[in-house]
C-alpha cells in the first residue's frame, strides 16, 4: 500500500465564520503532515459580466483578507510554510480543479453566500461531489470529541482509499479508528416463510470488516482500532457516531451518466448531517 499522496493542503477562504474554521483545520492538518498550506480565494465574476467595480478593487480587498488569514495560520503554526493565491472564476469549478491527486482541499460547510438554514453550501456540495482528490468539509463540531476518527466500511473497492485516509489521520493525530460496517437485512427477510440465521449473518458481516482492515492494521500497528457491525442504515450509524468524533471519513461511489464522479447516498447524507468535519476520499 503506497504512502500518502498529499503533498500540500489547500483551503478555500472567503472570510466567513465557516472559512475560518476550515482555515484552522487545514493549518493543523498541513502542520501534522509537514506539507505547505495554500490559502485560496476565488473572485467570482459579477452576474451578466457587469463591471460594478474595477477589478483591482476586488483584488486589493481579497489580498488584504488573505494576508490576515495567512497571519492567523502562521500564529497557529509558526513553522508552517504558507502561501496565498487569488484566482478569478466560478468558486465551485476553481476549487474542484484544485483537488487533484497531490492536494487535499478543505472547505467550510457554508460561506458568505449561503442561505440561512442551509445544511451545506452549494460550493462545498459541488466540490465534495465532483472533485477527484480528497475533500474535507469542516462542519461545526457538536458534543465532546474523543480523539476518534470514524470511517465507514463496506465490501466495495471504493471504500479502500477512505480507509487508508482514516488510518493515516489517526496515525498523525495519535487517535483511534472507529470502523463501522452497518448492514440491513433484505426487505424480504421479514416474510414469515423465509428464515435467516442471524448469528451467521452477523459473523459474515464481522468477517467483512476484519478482512478490510487487516492490511491497514499491519501497516499502522500503533493505531488503536475498534470494529462495529451494527444492524442499521449505514448513514444513520455514521451520523450518530459523528457526535463524538473528530472526523468522519467516507468514500465515493459510482459514475454519473456524463462521466462525473458522484457521491453515493450514504456519503451525501453524512456530508449534510454529520456533527463534525467530513472527509470525502476517492482514489
TrEMBL record:
InterPro entries in the cross-refs: Rossmann-like_a/b/a_fold, Universal_stress_UspA, UspA
Domain UspA: 9-139, 148-282
Entry's family note: Belongs to the universal stress protein A family.
Protein name (record): Nucleotide-binding universal stress UspA family protein
Organism: Thermopolyspora flexuosa
